[in-house]
Amino acid sequence: MVELGRLQPMPLRSAWPNEARDFTPWLADNLDVLGQAVGLALELRQKEYPVGRYSLDLLLQDAEGRVVAVENQLEQTDHSHLGQLLTYCAGTQAKVVIWIARTITEEHAAALEWLNANTVTGVGFFGIQVELLRIGDSVPAPNLVVIVRPNDWTKNNRSNRVDPTAWSWDAYVKELRLPRERVEVGRQLVAALIDGIEERDLAWQPVMNKGFVAIQRQGAYNVFIVDLWDNRVPRIAVKLPAAPDELNLISPYPNLKDFWSASEREWGWTVPPGAPIPDLGPLFDLAQNYNPPNGPMTLTSAPTPPA
């Protein structure tokens, strides 16, 4: 008979003595663990994000660009943190709110379920219990158990995911009534991106959405965006972990109008119909510098801009 071990629970503070100094930084570095639990690809925007006189533990963003607020407790949930959770939701305009604690009490689980049933459509609340387990003398492993999730979360998530075959260049013209010359610029930009992906042997894929095309890497993280809808002029953008000036970046396209979207973390340039398609090599250099093969973007040093 095969000998099997038994899972043994361990005190959370044996691995994370302090919530702010130990657990929150660990979670920020291991967002794939949280993402797997809730079914989202998550990226870090800021730790200890100020909201009024409080500080949200983690401000995140998912692959669809939604704001995700995470509040941690290494103890049992309490009313004080429930109030803070609502404050963070309002202060960040979060669409996904995650409360992580050693124990989610029945009263607070019921409160989260009530919020999921009665709050604004599109806002969802998770209640997650964290535990630390090991087998024998093995290295302890964290385990996140979802106690409360938004109503019909799985169904809604599936319906919100755009079928890659649902949109096409012709559909942009016929269904969205976008000018053909604008769509043609978008098509050329995407073709240039695909050429760059093939040249660099990257495992990135184009995904056509309503009004824009995203270039995604593993985990459904967006790397590039070709937008045909929002600005009435075709725009190509690269995702960055922080603003270009914070990263000491110089625009690789000084002749094109650029802008930074802090909420989307996108550095973009408009390419009017009739203008030549720019060399996208510098964008690939930026993207590869900040986008690892797996997980969220990193804050490594940017490459030195060419002279």
Task: Outline the fold blueprint.
Elements: E1 7-10, H1 19-29, H2 31-38, E2 42-51, E3 54-62, E4 67-72, H3 79-92, E5 96-101, H4 106-118, E6 124-135, E7 141-148, H5 153-160, H6 169-174, H7 180-200, E8 205-209, E9 212-217, E10 221-227, E11 235-239, E12 258-261, E13 266-270, H8 281-290
Parallel strand pairs: 4-5, 5-6
Antiparallel strand pairs: 1-6, 2-3, 3-4, 6-7, 8-9, 9-10, 10-11, 11-13, 12-13
Please describe what this structure looks like.
The chain has 307 residues and is α+β, with helices and mostly antiparallel strands. The chain is 30% helix and 28% strand. The chain contains eight helices and 13 strands. Strands 1, 2, 3, 4, 5, 6 and 7 form a seven-stranded mixed β-sheet that branches. Strands 8-9-10-11-13-12 form a six-stranded antiparallel β-sheet, covered by helices on one side. It is elongated, with a radius of gyration of 22 Å. Residues 154-165 and 301-307 have low confidence and may be disordered.
Topology, number of strands? 13
Number of continuous helical runs: 8
Q: How confident overall, as mean pLDDT?
A: 86
**Strand content of the residues, in percent?**
25-35%
Oligomeric organization of the protein chains:
single chain
Helical content band: 25-40%
Distance between the termini: 69 Å
Query: Could you give the order of the helices and strands?
Result: EHHEEEHEHEEHHHEEEEEEH
Shape: elongated
Largest sheet: 7 strands, mixed
Give the low-confidence spans.
Answer: 154-165, 301-307
* Secondary structural class: alpha+beta
Whole-angstrom Rg:
22 Å
